[in-house]
Amino acid sequence: MTEHWMIDVLADLRKFAEKNSMAKLTAQLDDAIHIAASEMAVVKPCIDKEIGPKQPVFAV
């Protein structure tokens, strides 16, 4: 998924904030990372050529 770069950027910002004792910003970025990951989650159907569609696989 092409949006994973956003989580990488947020994680880098979080590391910087934590390293520089920015506790409130660190907490906000934790929330932002979780929200971004949940909004990027999609259902990808898993298809077996012999059996047909299976239960959806959730990917983040």
Give a verbal description of the structure:
By secondary structure, the chain is α+β, with helices and mostly antiparallel strands. The chain is built from 2 helices and 4 strands; from the N terminus they run H-H-E-E-E-E. It has one domain (4-59). A hairpin with a 3-residue loop joins strand 2 and strand 3. The chain starts with a helix and ends with a strand.
Secondary structure layout:
Layout: H1 4-19, H2 23-40, E1 42-44, E2 47-48, E3 52-53, E4 57-59
Antiparallel strand pairs: 1-4, 2-3
Helix pairs in contact: 1-2
How is the main sheet built?
A: 2 strands, antiparallel
Average pLDDT confidence is 79
Strand content bin: 15-25%
Any low-confidence stretches, pLDDT <50, length ≥5?
Answer: 43-47
How many domains is the backbone divided into?
1
Q: Helix-strand pattern, N to C?
A: HHEEEE
Structural class of the secondary elements? alpha+beta
Rg estimate, integer Å: 17 Å
Shape: elongated
The largest sheet has its strands arranged as 1-4
User: Helical content, roughly?
Assistant: 55-70%
Cα separation of the termini: 9 Å
> How many β-strand stretches?
4
Total count of helical runs of at least 4 residues: 2
